[in-house]
Amino acid sequence: MISMSIFTPGIMALALMSSVAIAQSPSKWIFAEQDFVLTPHEQLVLKADALKGSTKAAARLTHFYMNVVLDLEEGLRWAIVGAENGDPVQQYEAYYLLSIRASEEDRQRAGFWLHQAAEQGYKPAIDELEHSASTVR
Known about the structure:
The chain is mainly alpha-helical. The protein has one domain. It contains 7 helices and no strands.
């Protein structure tokens, strides 16, 4: 028999917290970024709006798929829609998501979106271009 005295209060608290987390159903999980969670109806409305040109709708869908559903392909799809709609933040996100892919064509296209975001004055894109230029020299 194991003596309870060998368990520190921290280990006991951790064990208690993990048992509570396991007991909760996934439908009751709380995401740190609750704004990223979308209902099926919200998804439909946002998809229609994004396809009509809304950069905000495309960004919400990108964040939903990247952070809640964890579907990188669908996240990239909506980042590109937002990028095509002219949002420099979505252009930068499309750059990043394409730049980490295996395909050389995807990585080349990433450069296009990086330059688009930089041309609109998006500071992270400008910084990335300056950094990449300084490392090439």
